[in-house]
Amino acid sequence: MSHNTFGHLFRVTTFGESHGPAIGCVIDGCPPMIPLDAAEIQAELDRRKPGQSRFTTQRREPDEVKILSGVFADERTGRQVTTGTPIALLIENVDQRSKDYSEIKDRYRPGHADFTYDVKYGIRDYRGGGRSSARETAARVAAGAVARKILPGVTIRGALVQMGPHPINRSRWDWDEVQRNPFFSPDAEAAAFYEDYLDRLRKEGSSVGAVIEIVAEGVPPGLGAPIYGKLDAELAAALMSINAVKGVEIGDGFAAAALRGEENADEMRPGNAGMPTFLSNHAGGVLGGISTGQPLVCRFAVKPTSSILTPRASVTRFGEEVDVSTRGRHDPCVGIRAVPVGEAMVACVLADQYLRHRAQVGQSVPWPFGELSPAQS
Amino acid sequence: MSHNTFGHLFRVTTFGESHGPAIGCVIDGCPPMIPLDAAEIQAELDRRKPGQSRFTTQRREPDEVKILSGVFADERTGRQVTTGTPIALLIENVDQRSKDYSEIKDRYRPGHADFTYDVKYGIRDYRGGGRSSARETAARVAAGAVARKILPGVTIRGALVQMGPHPINRSRWDWDEVQRNPFFSPDAEAAAFYEDYLDRLRKEGSSVGAVIEIVAEGVPPGLGAPIYGKLDAELAAALMSINAVKGVEIGDGFAAAALRGEENADEMRPGNAGMPTFLSNHAGGVLGGISTGQPLVCRFAVKPTSSILTPRASVTRFGEEVDVSTRGRHDPCVGIRAVPVGEAMVACVLADQYLRHRAQVGQSVPWPFGELSPAQS
Amino acid sequence: MSHNTFGHLFRVTTFGESHGPAIGCVIDGCPPMIPLDAAEIQAELDRRKPGQSRFTTQRREPDEVKILSGVFADERTGRQVTTGTPIALLIENVDQRSKDYSEIKDRYRPGHADFTYDVKYGIRDYRGGGRSSARETAARVAAGAVARKILPGVTIRGALVQMGPHPINRSRWDWDEVQRNPFFSPDAEAAAFYEDYLDRLRKEGSSVGAVIEIVAEGVPPGLGAPIYGKLDAELAAALMSINAVKGVEIGDGFAAAALRGEENADEMRPGNAGMPTFLSNHAGGVLGGISTGQPLVCRFAVKPTSSILTPRASVTRFGEEVDVSTRGRHDPCVGIRAVPVGEAMVACVLADQYLRHRAQVGQSVPWPFGELSPAQS
Amino acid sequence: MSHNTFGHLFRVTTFGESHGPAIGCVIDGCPPMIPLDAAEIQAELDRRKPGQSRFTTQRREPDEVKILSGVFADERTGRQVTTGTPIALLIENVDQRSKDYSEIKDRYRPGHADFTYDVKYGIRDYRGGGRSSARETAARVAAGAVARKILPGVTIRGALVQMGPHPINRSRWDWDEVQRNPFFSPDAEAAAFYEDYLDRLRKEGSSVGAVIEIVAEGVPPGLGAPIYGKLDAELAAALMSINAVKGVEIGDGFAAAALRGEENADEMRPGNAGMPTFLSNHAGGVLGGISTGQPLVCRFAVKPTSSILTPRASVTRFGEEVDVSTRGRHDPCVGIRAVPVGEAMVACVLADQYLRHRAQVGQSVPWPFGELSPAQS
After folding, report:
1. What is its EC number (chains A, B, C, D) (predicted)?
2. pLDDT at position C350
3. Chain D neighbors of B69, CB-CB under 8 A
4. For the purposes of burial, counting CB atoms within 10 Å of the CB of A40, is it exposed (0-12), middle (13-18) or buried (19 or more)?
5. Which member of A113, B296, C17, D117 has the lowest number of beta carbons within 10 Å of its beta carbon?
6. How far apart are CA D227 and CA C15, in angstroms?
7. Helix H or strand E encompassing A87
8. In angstroms, what is the C-alpha Rg of chain B?
């Protein structure tokens, strides 16, 4: 069962509400002897942190992470390493502005989870969205930072490839550019356009959706657990579980439906070390639920932020008519900050599948993926 | 862990290879006292069965299901009912033509799982695709037939909404039409077009992809288990786990990314029994991972069948160059028979989430979904 | 998978080391709308707290619990209630005396987990036993306090029934007496004897084992999930997972092996509301893995504390001979403080099985156990 | 969740009722490339098979096992090997005497699960005990035969060490003797005594309990997953889940409670390859939930068979008084056939823990347990 736990062998259990004392997670199943300190996790958190540009929420959260357990100094190397016991990570909530919630506590904001939490649980922590707040994704990013450490040789990067109806131009794709603009856009020209575009939307109190692409390179062939723990199925769940996501694609995704078999088949030619070289990657690095060794390519669609200034028709929890608009701090395009979250989810899925492969297949099948060892990580 | 098990409380474990003695599944966690006989399961299997038109594979499998356990005659009603113990379902493989596999056993068919199974496990049952064959989905359909029985008042229907690059015309949508053509198309005109289109492709030995839409009506609000067991996340995993699926959408899906917040928000007005009436359904019936009570709408993209006549470049498992083409029985559009499979997966997810809701919330929150009882089902 | 998670639907994940910053747990799956405040959890923790008499370790830990998430004020009643989201509980470690660990860090104390943690993980937090310290059981007791809240009408009590080779006299059993002596003994005379006995052992720097009995009254018939989630099987795992436990019994336990069928069968006579009345309880309240409605009776054996003054032969982690003795704070009979821990584990198992029953059977079978509702709890 | 599934990574799901068409299991997670044929499984099943002496039930079941999936011929060696996909095993029920069940169907036999299944599920397959029949354990033994194959170098043997109140004499322990008498007694003199003793009980229509001991040699140090997946906790659940078991012990078990710390601590001296040599084994091969490398020793108590000729007071399912006695085929000491079942459960736990260890720790910590490889197994 997995209400608030993600993963099977690399298990992440998150907790916490937006305006409670703290959020955090417990990571269970992490291998021992992996160098890990808080600064590495903090570096990933800082990429997701709010308030870094005028295009994200102005909530001021330092998102400072503390490691409460599961690490110890290895006196042989002087480094802090994992011990194989659960790693608890804590992020205190700091910017919980005390404010008047009377407007929000009884009203169901359209597009939000207000109504569904209330109808399911009979109560909800309405302050800042409570458990359904995107703030929970900070815990995912922290866990993802740990997951990356057990994937030697794998590079997981994400980029925003569409904002509203405006896609980037893929011929201008530059991974370095992703670090240089506040949108994680790999296309500098698109980034310049998004700046004006989002400023305009922000001033109107409106919002817009986005499409994010995550690419994992260096994934060895053989990861994935058919039939129901397929690599692509778990990626789909992982990405769809991110707040506001409405669609997921692997490789060509929906475009594959329009292709003929001849177009879609990724041809192969003999490659290195007995492994085939693929001549294309329509499959996005997955066949039969198992990685092929090609780059893993997945995309997800984020709906526009539901918090907008324009009043929308709604009801109160007493069944009365009401119009709702949202003032105050919010992300005009919540898809932007979803980029590091998407990376983190892919990292968690790959770490989990790596441990699953190691459990079932181990060394009994020669495998072109060096075993994780302290020296490597 | 879930290599071959799907679901948490309504758990389905499938087994079997395409050309082994049998395929089947064990359903664990099914509530007791639900009337169930083999004929009900058979009716669903017959919808997926191969060889029913010239547009699907000509393999002749009766797909006759036997119930091996978990049911017993209720002497009070004379009906056979579930007992709460595991329900084992067996489907023997009948049409395993003995043939020469020398062409296939050492060659990696592009787009197939041949290479990935071999690289992962060091061996594969190459006859008819073995475990990675779409034949495994018969077990899913059988399980889905049982899942439907524990969802009183819920109607789950699927339709093919695009074949190759050709979508249906949604203004002509007619659920009754879905039963009348061999494509599960809700648009009679599109069905007529598909007939010619697919005949042409079939004669060329080619293949094409498809998009399938599943709609579940009567789903009560409150189903779903945030954060990682969200209803939409589990649907995404369920649908992506079907053979050849490359994309999944909930509600507006990828189109939502292009919308502004004002367009995407589903407004509400007071409805019956204190429940809101939604004025639109961009969300596809899910907010915050929990059902809203609106129809649940999801879509998935199926890639073109990888078995085609046109030779494609590939390698053998010894690393030698080879060209591969596939003769013999195959589905030119494997998406067609994916319709009942998609319905079954949605049914399994909903049954599981229903039991999860019953576990955590039970009667402690008044809920507009009558408790399952023998009388109702 | 469950390295550090206990339970299926009422899931408790614990974390933390004895001398790290904090220990704690995350409870996932708790039903919503259950009144819960920290004071209720604290009351249980105080029963297990060290340093309350001269017969337990003199470590001074206030064991103050904080609720980090999962509760919210119900404005209808003014009470704080659960919200259905994960409940994170934190207990900071306060009395981590900074001391010289050079004696312990390289030596394997006989009977301790020093060697096995080292051989498994390659590293261990040696301060106070780290993760293998009995300190972890504080998190279990906290979780058990929450579990009790979802079991209306069930009373779970424990007692020490044997210390070293000295059993209590069952004819003097008095539940009230359990609260009055520092040993949780239900027999006042035995308690008086234990006082002298343990003082003597303590002064010799020795230790002794114990047998604990837990009785749960008010458990309705029907709880348990055959075949592998049987109520007694889960109790056995729960109790055996407590530090230093070497044996578990249900009902007559090992004594049942010596009985004849006529003696062991618990006869029945018609009782109230169509339920049978049992004339004896050799079964300890479980038949076929399902509760009978009789009191649930289980016992567990705790080995003597391994920390003793008498030097014992051992090795260092470099393979050198060494003699080890343990100075400083320790429990001469660790079984004493295991009483509230055993109660907590039984509460967690029952809460989990209750939710499992509610999931699979719900209201479809009339059941003599009132549904949990806010009013009841 | 685990109603009918046992294990986490080596997962066994059993199904079937005593008098239904078949019983069986699905094993998921078995590593690939392990030589396996039906004869090996059959050999284990034959040890548990009823009707082999006058001391077990006279039901005549050939218990012939069929492998339905998960194996394939490895053309390199000509041997049938596992493929990494689920292994389904089927055992058809043959000796289902058609008989009159009117005596049993409405009466609750004392000590049986009749009442508890009925009160929980509202219905039960009463023929031969249905799902609660010891017949289910045949599926466990079959799964155990597969589990043994992935534990190179580990020897798992069981013996009956007490029948009724009569223990064996441990000084006469001879593992070879276990094969030579129908009681699995390691003490030839005790076996001779049991023959007369059980003949007398059988003629009286009575029954008696037993204690079984399982010893696993060659278990490497490091197996076990603290805190809640401890090796001893999982063994306790595994053994307690066997029909009629009421107690479980590891190492000294309940006797440990009577010891002082000095007596109980297993001292160590430097051994081979840097591993310590233990000077005693009170711990039964487990410290802190992790194996020490010493022999794993566990015991379980089996209550007397509940089916006896002497009438016992009971009720019908309509609440009427009735006296019940059981005629016909039954085991006078069901503990005898529990010996191979206990071995199988220990094998399954060890296989599961081995895969868990391989997942979390892999090669990152040097481990004195050769990796499983096709050559070894």
Report:
1. 4.2.3.5
2. 97
3. 15-17, 20-23, 131
4. middle
5. A113
6. 9
7. strand A87-92
8. 22
- Please classify residue D173 by burial: count the beta carbons closer than 10 Å to its beta carbon, then call 0-12 exposed, 13-18 middle and 19+ buried: middle
Residue labelled with tokens 């490091």: D222
* Helices B338-360 and B231-240, packing angle to 10 deg: 150
Whether A372 shows a pLDDT value over 50: the answer reads no
Q: What is the pLDDT of residues A175-201, one digit of tens each?
A: 999 999 999 999 999 999 999 999 999
Report d(CA C356, CA C350) in Å as an integer.
Answer: 10
In order of A24, B4, C3, D115, the CA distances from C23 in angstroms are: 14, 36, 16, 43
pLDDT at residue B154 greater than cutoff 70: yes
Residues 6+ apart with CB under 8 A from D192: none
User: How many CB contacts within 8 angstroms connect chain B with chain D?
Assistant: 146
Residues 6+ apart with CB under 8 A from B296: B214, B215, B216, B217, B219, B231, B235, B284, B285, B286, B346, B350
Q: pTM for the full model?
A: 0.96
| Lowest-confidence pick of A154-158, C226-230, D85-89, D316-320 | D316-320
Q: Mean pLDDT over residues B316-335, rounded?
A: 88
Nearest to D359 among A33, A359, A364 (CB): A359
Beta strands (DSSP E) in chain B are 5-6, 11-15, 22-28, 65-67, 71-74, 79-82, 87-92, 155-163, 166-167, 210-217, 245-250, 268-270, 276-278, 286-287, 290-291, 296-302, 312-315, 321-324
Rounded to whole angstroms, the Cα distance separating A216 from C318 reads: 42
**Tens of pLDDT, residues B221-280:** 999 999 999 999 999 999 999 999 999 999 999 999 999 999 999 999 999 877 899 999
Provide the strand spans (E) within D187-324.
210-217, 245-250, 268-270, 276-278, 286-287, 290-291, 296-302, 312-315, 321-324
- What is residue D327's predicted lDDT score, i.e. its pLDDT? 76
How many angstroms separate the CA of residue C77 from the nearest CA in chain D? 35
10 Å CB burial of residue D102 (0-12, 13-18, 19+) is exposed
Chain CA centroid to CA B315, Å: 32
Mean pLDDT of B306-329: 89
CA distance A288 to B81: 37
Q: Tell me which chain A residues have a C-beta less than 8 angstroms from the C-beta of D33.
A: 364-365
pLDDT value of residue A272: 84
Say how far apart CA D223 and CA D218 lie, in whole Å: 12
- The two structure tokens encoding residue C208: 């002794």
Which percentage of chain A shows pLDDT scores above 90?
A: 81
The residue among C217, C364, D160, D217 whose CA lies nearest residue B150 is: C364
Give the per-residue pLDDT at D371.
Answer: 46
Report the distance separating Cα C236 and Cα C247, nearest Å. Answer: 9
Rounded CA separation D355/D338 (Å) = 26
List Cβ neighbours of D64 (8 Å cut-off, separation of 6 or more). D42, D91, D92
CATH superfamily of B5-361: Chorismate synthase AroC (3.60.150.10)
Residue D57 in this model has a pLDDT that exceeds 80: no
Cβ neighbors of C272 (< 8 A, separation 6 or more) are none
Q: Test C229 with D2 for CB contact under 8 angstroms.
A: yes
Looking at residue B230, its pLDDT comes to: 98
| Contact call for D359 and A9, based on CB within 8 A | yes
- Boundaries of every domain in chain D: 5-361
Alpha helices by DSSP H, listed for chain D, are 38-48, 102-105, 114-121, 137-149, 175-180, 188-203, 231-240, 261-264, 338-360
Interface residues on A facing C, Cβ-Cβ cutoff 8 A: 1, 3-5, 8-9, 11, 13-17, 20-24, 26, 28-29, 32-33, 66, 68-70, 72, 74, 81, 83-88, 90, 120-125, 130-131, 374
Distance CA B283, CA B294 (A): 9
